Amino acid sequence: MVKHITDENVQELVDALHLDYEALLERFHFTIGGKSLTREESIRFIEFLRTELGNQTK
């Protein structure tokens, strides 16, 4: 079953980015093009988001 991304989903993820990797990986399932990301890919994606969002506040 494909879960559609909503603004609420995005906001929930952004609000949770301060959590550690394990908590985020338990709470969210990351996919691209319907393909599940590996644990390592998911962590790189989380790091990307943290970096990009951190750059917006500078």
Describe the oligomeric state of these chains in a short phrase: single chain
Number of helical elements: 3
SSE succession:
HHEEH
**Major beta sheet, strand line-up:** 1-2
Q: Averaged pLDDT, please?
A: 89
Supply Rg. Answer: 12 Å
- Integer tally of domains: 1
Overall geometry comes to globular
- Cα separation of the termini: 39 Å
Describe the structure in your own words.
- The chain is globular and about 30 Å long.
- It has one domain (7-56).
- The mean pLDDT is 89.
- It has 58 residues and is mostly helical.
- A two-stranded antiparallel ribbon has the order 1-2.
- It contains three helices and two strands; from the N terminus they run ααββα.
- The chain starts with 6 loop residues before the first helix and ends with a helix.
- A hairpin with a 2-residue loop joins β1 and β2.
- Helices cover 60% and strands 7% of the residues.
Characterize this entry briefly.
It is built from three helices and two strands, in the order ααββα. The protein is mainly alpha-helical and 58 residues long. The chain has one domain.
Indicate the topology.
Blueprint: H1 7-16, H2 21-27, E1 31-32, E2 35-36, H3 39-56
Antiparallel strand pairs: 1-2
